[in-house]
Design a protein that fits this description.
Radius of gyration: 22 Å
Shape: globular
Strand content: under 5%
Number of helices: 14
Order of helices and strands: HHHHHHHHHHHHHH
């Protein structure tokens, strides 16, 4: 009984820390700045739709949304494709130094992006990838590789070797087993790493700030900062813009939540 009480208390604390700020942002967009200044924690009354309507009617918002979507999709595809290949090799092949390579990827989870800022900028400038979506998408995919491999490797390793032997007897090569059998069976884990890579890319702020100087290439996180600086006196509209910027990634996460749980569970069991 005591454990249940502690669990419920922890759940309420998590909800309070995560959901309450989101509700404040979303509901704040339905108020006027005067209402927010007079009662910051109050509810909309009356409801003001003009803030959201004006943001949705602005071409700038849709340009930022398109930039973020393009970069997030590219980063997610690169992370999942190369991460699944690496996880396949680390889970189904025996070779010297395999565990050392896996440990190196695991240590990548602890590598802060701030440390790589200067060398990354110099590298991208030499490659001519500044002001280019690939200059953001490729590093984002690289930073998503460690968690992708850490989740996929135990999941793929848990798949019975009898399936691989049967596929080889039927004439399928190693790559045939990978594409036709292993990847379909790993779908829950693939969905999990795809969601994580997409949401991580969507929320990245430092990399786009590092690569882009032209506001035409900005992503939504940069757009929120720019919009806030341009509308410092209109708090309600800034909250509406911020809420709409969070909505795509939040909706994507919520829709894939159940499959994500299945993928993480399979990885832990593996």
């Amino acid at each position: 009984m005591r454990r249940n009480a502690v669990g419920y208390l922890a759940a309420f604390l998590v909800v309070g820390v995560t959901v309450v700020p989101l509700l404040f942002v979303v509901l704040g967009g339905f108020r006027t700045t005067a209402q927010i200044n007079s009662s910051p924690a109050g509810l909309p009354g009356p409801w003001v739709w003009e803030n959201y309507r004006s943001v949705l009617a602005a071409p700038e918002f849709w340009r930022l949304l398109g930039n973020s979507t393009l970069i997030a999709v590219i980063a997610t595809v690169l992370a999942v494709v190369f991460g699944s290949m690496a996880a396949f090799a680390l889970s189904r092949y025996e070779f010297k130094g395999r565990e050392s390579v896996y440990t190196l990827f695991t240590l990548g989870l602890l590598f802060p992006i701030g440390v790589a800022t200067l060398p990354l900028y110099l590298w991208l400038r030499q490659l001519g990838l500044l002001e280019n979506p690939l200059g953001v998408a490729i590093p984002e995919a690289a930073f998503s590789l460690p968690v992708t491999i850490v989740i996929l490797r135990p999941f793929m390793r848990a798949i019975p070797s009898e399936l691989e032997d049967a596929a080889l007897l039927d004439g399928a090569a190693k790559l045939g087993f990978f594409w036709r059998i292993l990847l379909p069976l790993s779908r829950p884990a693939l969905i999990t790493v795809s969601v994580l890579a997409f949401v991580t890319s969507w929320n990245f702020y430092l990399l786009p700030l590092l690569v882009f100087n032209d506001s035409a290439h900005f992503t939504l996180p940069l757009g929120v900062a720019m919009f806030q600086s341009e509308h410092t006196q209109d708090t309600a509209k800034v909250l509406a813009f911020t809420a709409l910027s969070m909505l795509p990634a939040l909706a994507f996460f919520v829709l894939a939540e159940r499959r994500m749980v299945g993928g993480l569970t399979g990885s832990v069991k593996g």
